């Protein structure tokens, strides 16, 4: 039987989702690690809580990747939580002008890319989560 790889219930779809998430979160790890190496911990001039949050993502992003492959349902929850909070925090930092005044009608490329990845996570996570539940149920039946 031929299966469509784009069907949310197909194993191929789940593999694609995991790989896209993994690449995205490893890119986030790189970005946060690069920030720490360039500016140190608790990147000034942002408030302390934001600096702590960004530095924590240096550990949470690769942990999310590991969980996506070892404990996929937990990894999906973590991916959604991180993307929701990170996009919110980064948008706030941009709009507050911590790294320069925001440009009218312009979104920085990095925030745009992150938002696209976040949209992908938000749209695919519910399908992937239900597919992982179905896989678990099928594996316990066999």
Radius of gyration, CA atoms, in whole angstroms: 17 Å
What does the largest sheet look like? Answer: none
Structural class estimated from helices and strands: mainly alpha
Overall pLDDT level: 86
- Unreliable stretches (pLDDT < 50, length at least 5) are none
Number of helices: 4
Query: Could you state the order of secondary-structure elements as H and E?
Result: HHHH
Shape: elongated
Number of domains: 1
Beta-strand residue percentage: under 5%
| Strand element count | 0
Calculate the terminal CA-CA distance, rounded to whole Å. Answer: 20 Å
Question: Which percent range fits the helix content?
Answer: over 70%
Topology:
Blueprint: H1 11-39, H2 48-70, H3 72-96, H4 109-141
Helix pairs in contact: 1-2, 1-4, 2-3, 3-4
Description:
This protein is an all-alpha fold. The protein has one domain. It has helices at 11-39, 48-70, 72-96, 109-141. The longest helix is centred in the C-terminal third of the chain and has 33 residues, at 109-141.
């Amino acid at each position: 039987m031929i299966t469509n790889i784009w069907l949310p219930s197909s194993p191929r779809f789940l593999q694609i989702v995991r790989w896209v998430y993994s690449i995205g979160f490893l890119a986030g790890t790189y970005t946060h690690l690069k920030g720490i190496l360039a500016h140190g911990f608790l990147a000034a001039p942002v408030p302390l809580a934001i600096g702590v949050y960004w530095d924590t993502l240096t550990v949470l992003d690769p942990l999310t990747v590991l969980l996506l492959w070892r404990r996929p349902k937990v990894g999906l929850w973590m991916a959604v939580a991180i993307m929701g909070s990170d996009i919110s925090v980064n948008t706030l930092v941009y709009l507050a002008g911590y790294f320069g005044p925001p440009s009218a009608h312009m979104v920085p490329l990095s925030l745009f890319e992150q938002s696209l990845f976040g949209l992908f996570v938000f749209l695919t996570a519910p399908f992937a989560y239900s597919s992982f539940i179905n896989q678990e149920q099928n594996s316990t039946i066999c």
